[in-house]
Amino acid sequence: MSKNNKKNKSESVLKWVLALLVEIMILALLIIGYWIYYRDSKIEKIKKIEIDEEDLAINEGINEEVQQKYKTIVLFGIDARDVTNLGEGNRSDSIMIVNINNDTKEVKIVSVYRDTFLEVESDSPVTAKANAAYAYGGPQLAIKTLNANLDLQITDFVTVNFLGLTKAIDDLGGITVHVEENELPVLNMAIAEQISVTGIYSDGVFTTGDLLLNGTQATAYARIRSTDQGDITRTERQRDVLTKVFQKAKSSDLATINDIIDDVFPEIATSLTEDEIKELANAIFDYQIVDTVGFPFAYTPITHETKGAVLVPANLTANVSALHGYLFNETGYVPTVNVQNISAVISGETGVAEQPITVAPQSFQ
């Protein structure tokens, strides 16, 4: 073959490769455009609840400079029978602090046990279970309570009705979780309850091991409470389900994402602005959930004479110090005077003393 023929052939191949690259780039741009268009056009389906940032009980003396390196949002899961009601009057069945490192995009999730004995920051502060704050004053009071008790500066929340979780998992084609023998009876009871609440039918679960569960089954699994360590183990299941939903959604096609948007957005309330939602969405594929943990780390379960079965931090000051070590990599954090005062109130009311603390994160990778 002559040099000219080789040159012409090389130029032809180069042109073909360049044309293919251009087509791929155009396709990518079309996909991105499709995503942005539908995301923007449907974002209005999310219910907006304004938060008064001047009334969030951010403690004086917190490590503000450190926390500004992170985006911290609290996720509430509620079981509102009336799906239009996502505000006060509902106890938060799930409380998860989602902490995003702004630089690395690493995500850590802390489940605050719903029965954790804290000081609810109403006009007249009173000790109660953590999930009572949402019922008394909606997300505003719930955030205020978390900030005051944990030395955080949370300003935003997302509340999701469990119906939205069920629909999202169905849109994803289910998720795989590990079901133990002792979970089967209570899982099927929870499935029956989910059906009565949502009207979405499902078969029961009758085998153990790694199982592909549909939305109703997986939501029921996340809500099992009466096995092992009760609410402690339930929050582990909730974090497991949330992580697997997140991971599967990241690898889904646009049609699936569009279905999730249609089904889930109407079941969400948030304080985030449209711009903040878009900013979070733009980085969705960069986020990586590294591990999760339950809070408090050290606690004593007691039956309070007027407030029932509660988990008492042992003690709150030591737990908050460990929490900041986990979330913000701040070793030896000294909680504020306000946290120390609340800790003294809780210890005085319950008689629960400080215990050694071990932070044992779980990875669901």
Protein architecture, described:
- This protein has helices at residues 3-42, 64-67, 132-150, 162-171, 184-198, 215-222, 231-250, 254-264, 274-282, 316-328, 337-350, and strands spanning 47-48, 70-78, 92-101, 106-112, 117-120, 126-129, 156-161, 175-179, 209-213, 268-270, 288-295, 299-304, 308-313.
- It folds into three domains: 3-45; 48-163 and 288-350, 2-Layer Sandwich (Nucleotidyltransferase, domain 5); 171-271, LCP protein (Aminopeptidase).
- It is α/β, with parallel strands linked by helices and 365 residues long.
- The strands form four sheets. Strands 1-10-7-2-3-4-11 form a seven-stranded mixed sheet, sandwiched between helices.
Give the neighbour order of strands across the main sheet.
Answer: 1-10-7-2-3-4-11
Strand content: 15-25%
CATH topology of the largest domain: Nucleotidyltransferase, domain 5
Counted beta strands: 13
Order of helices and strands, N to C? HEHEEEEEHEHEHEHHHEHEEEHH
Specify the structural class: alpha/beta
CATH hierarchy class name of the largest domain: Alpha Beta
Rg estimate, integer Å: 24 Å
Overall number of structural domains: 3
Distance between the termini: 55 Å
Largest beta-sheet characterization: 7 strands, mixed
Helix content range of the residues, please?
Answer: 40-55%
Helical element count? Answer: 11
- In the predicted model, the low-confidence regions spanning at least 5 consecutive residues are none
Mean pLDDT: 85
Q: Which architecture of the largest domain would the CATH scheme give at its second level?
A: 2-Layer Sandwich
